[in-house]
Design a protein that fits this description.
By secondary structure, the protein is an alpha/beta fold. The strands form five sheets. It has a six-stranded mixed beta sheet, with helices on both faces. Strands 8-11-7-12 form a four-stranded mixed beta sheet. A hairpin with a 4-residue loop joins β1 and β2. It is globular and about 75 Å long.
């Protein structure tokens, strides 16, 4: 193998587990073309034709005593021991489908180069169960009801799970308790958790202190891939600075309307990013925590909430906010409105200037990322939006006859070698090392004759949101101009008001909470939108706050508090 200068330095940067508690993870799949990697899942894919449950169990049992420990070629530098088994073994894996992936592999993941290579390396064949998009929870429920669960369950979303939670799934006999198994058979996974600190371990345990899954992690914290953008060329032309305060925002938006003819200088929509500009007032529109105490912003901070809504109403009345914002859909700005110059301050993804707003660039325009406004320029911004330590999860079911094989197969992707393979594929084929020792994709990925970049990722390496392991999300930045990648750094805001994503309610709490909060959420959304458009008067704002109490918001806060308390006690 060709010697590459500084190769080891990159590997150490990734895999000599850094004792830095900033290593947070996310399940979010960063996209390289609008809609390409964030598309919904699609048609289901069948498992290996002709195989049966008895065949699969027989293969697993036959290999039960052939786990390759003593005779495997140990590679201490990678933490991997391959193959996983001497004799071929078969595992059945349930994982949500991805219509784009299925198009690339003709409906069978085993047709992709990545999964072919993974089988060759591990000697473990996978029979896939890939439920179609929108049927994932139903599919899992049916498997649970049948009592014949697949060996491994991959949940790419936190919303798909055993309805009563992980602890109940273990107690009810569906999920394996991995607490004693992971230290024995998943050394790479445990090394990652232990090296990243107690917060990581706590987030990956249940409320009862058990390991119920193996989480998917990012090598380094993934920066936000969306936030607010503004037309930099207009700022330059009008000799304006990037706005910082609410007063600055209003001045810039006014200039855009009066001197550039923007009909909707500011674009937001009534649900997804309605509260995004309110964090400067502490108007979060949701639950948050301070020093371990849970609050609901509209109820707990009515002054800040009112100030923000009054600001939006003023902007709406003055024609600075899109007049049709109350009916707007989508979570980023409409490309037509951006390209024709009707809007110039909006929420978007960092890839969109090159992909969807290219008409502006072709005319000499430019975009700059900016943070939400502050009341005072030196104020500290803190977001309430949670970010999970782990993304998807890999669960071992009690139907698995060989949990040792299943765990060791998964653990390979937490090793140095396995993580590098999952992120970049095969050296000198799909990637090489650059002069700084960092892996970069070859043209097989970046300029493939038969598929676009998103398709190549799905075919040659581990696609976002699949399986588990440690992924290098920065691989996707290779296809985006550096100036737009830099936007992600601007959008980073402290999350010290966020309730951890892993602080979850149990089934009983969630049922009560959902019943109460559904009406509250509808009421808040409709009332606050009406305040902005002027169909409701601020004279009734105090009644709005008291109505939240009548609806039961204090009970919702109590339920959220219980979940947070249990999380903090893990």
């Amino acid at each position: 193998m060709q010697e590459v200068p500084n190769k080891k330095s990159w590997r150490e940067d990734i895999y000599v587990f850094q004792k830095n508690k900033k290593f947070l993870a996310t399940a979010l799949a960063l996209t390289l073309t609008a809609g390409a990697l964030l598309t919904g899942c699609g048609d289901s894919a069948a498992g290996t034709p002709g195989s049966t449950e008895d065949d699969r169990q027989e293969k697993n049992l036959a290999s039960d005593d052939r786990i390759n420990r003593e005779n495997a070629e140990e590679t201490p530098s990678t933490g991997a021991s391959l193959p996983i088994v001497d004799e071929p073994a078969t595992l059945q894996v349930w994982m949500p489908s991805d219509v784009a992936q299925m198009n690339v592999c003709a409906g069978d993941l085993n047709n992709t180069e990545f999964y072919k290579q993974l089988e060759e390396r591990t000697n473990v064949h996978i029979e896939w169960i890939n439920p179609a998009s929108g049927t994932e929870q139903e599919s899992l429920n049916l498997a649970i009801a049948s009592g014949e669960l697949p060996d491994i369950i991959i949940t790419g979303s936190r919303t798909v799970n055993y309805i009563d939670g992980y602890d109940a799934a273990i107690d009810d006999g569906y999920y394996l308790d991995l607490t004693d198994l992971l230290p024995q058979y998943a050394p790479n996974y445990m090394a990652w958790l232990e090296a990243n600190g107690e917060d990581f371990i706590k987030a990956c345990k249940t409320d009862n202190g058990r390991f119920a899954f193996m989480g998917a992690f990012m090598r380094v914290e993934q920066t936000p891939f969306s936030g607010y953008m503004i037309r930099q060329d207009w700022l330059d032309e009008l000799n304006l600075d990037i706005p910082v305060t609410y007063e600055d925002y209003e001045n810039v938006l006014t200039q855009f309307k009066e001197k550039k003819g923007a009909t909707a200088p500011l674009f937001i929509q009534p649900t997804i990013d309605f509260w995004g500009l309110g964090i400067g007032y502490g108007a979060y529109g949701d639950f948050y925590q301070e020093n371990g105490t849970v609050y609901y912003a509209p109820y707990s901070n009515p002054e800040g909430t009112r100030s923000y809504l009054e600001t939006l109403h003023k902007w709406y009345e003055n024609g600075l906010l899109d007049s049709d914002f109350a009916t707007a859909t989508g979570w980023t700005a409409d490309p037509v409105m951006v390209n024709n110059g009707n809007t110039a301050l909006f929420s978007a993804m960092y890839i969109q200037p090159q992909s969807q707003y290219a008409a502006v660039l072709e005319q000499g325009g430019s975009f700059t990322a900016l943070q939400p406004p502050k009341v005072n320029a030196d104020d500290h911004l803190s977001t309430y939006q949670p970010k999970g330590v782990y993304g998807g999860a890999a669960i071992i079911s009690t139907s698995c006859k060989n949990p040792e094989i299943a765990i060791r197969w998964l653990d390979y992707l937490y090793s140095e070698e396995g993580s590098l393979f999952a992120s970049y594929g095969v050296e000198n084929d799909t990637f090489i090392y650059d002069e700084n020792g960092k892996p970069v994709f070859t043209e097989k990925i970046t300029n493939n004759e038969n598929m676009d970049f998103a398709g190549a990722l799905r075919y040659y390496v581990l696609a976002p949101g699949q399986l588990a392991g440690i992924m290098d999300w920065t691989r996707e930045l290779q296809m985006v101009d550096e100036q737009y990648c830099a936007m992600c750094d601007v959008w980073v805001i402290d999350r010290d008001k966020a309730i951890p994503a892993e602080a979850v309610m149990n089934a009983e709490e969630n049922a009560e909470y959902s019943k109460i909060f559904a009406d509250i959420q509808t009421y808040v959304n409709e009332y606050c939108t009406s305040l902005v458009t002027g169909t409701q008067s601020f004279d009734e704002f105090d009644t709005f706050i008291s109505n939240l109490n009548t609806y039961g918001i204090e009970r919702c806060i109590e339920l959220k508090q219980s979940a947070l308390d249990r999380y903090n006690s893990r």
